[in-house]
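Study this pair:
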Amino acid sequence: MEVLWIGLLAFAGGVIAALLGWLESKLPFDAKKFSSSAIRALAAGLGIALAYNFQDFLTPLDLIAAFLSGAGVDVVGNRIGGAIRKRKESAP
């Protein structure tokens, strides 16, 4: 059951980071951009849950770390995607 909570919190961290990024941008909602963030959040949730699968008990710090890890995966993924897009646009 603990693995489920870890996965859900990591997923929630990624989704909330994506929603906060959208709110900050003041642009209209783009489902395509959000879906890529949701996929990254799902991957983060699964990966972090698998990593915690070998732990016997959870502390509140573990839950916070899972949430922040999910958010970090989304933020880093967006930065990488943005850098790749800029590189393609500036290439002759």
